[in-house]
Design a protein that fits this description.
CATH class: Mainly Beta
Distance between the termini: 23 Å
CATH topology: ATP Synthase, domain 1
Structural class: mainly beta
Number of helices: 0
Mean pLDDT: 96
Order of helices and strands: EEEEEE
């Protein structure tokens, strides 16, 4: 699936990933390939990204929104 993490200042990440763990307002949750469509609010925390080569990257955010649709994930982060 394709992921973009965007802040008001710049694009933090874009590329194909295997999995994403997000700090949802109602609790952390993960997203894998072919996930059902969802829009959710995010709280301050860490976005954990595992790319297709099994490399893990962590991004600290202060909140935001995530949209998952047709194997594309967009994180609009603060």
């Amino acid at each position: 699936m394709y992921l973009e993490i965007i802040t008001p200042e710049k694009k933090l990440f874009s590329g194909d990933v295997e999995s994403i763990k997000l700090p949802g307002v109602e609790g952390s949750f993960g997203v894998l390939d072919n996930h059902a469509p969802i829009i959710a609010s995010l709280k301050k925390g860490t976005v954990k990204v595992t790319d297709t080569k099994k490399q893990v990257e962590n991004f600290e955010i202060n909140g935001g929104v995530v949209e998952v649709l047709k194997n594309k994930v967009i994180v609009l982060a603060e």
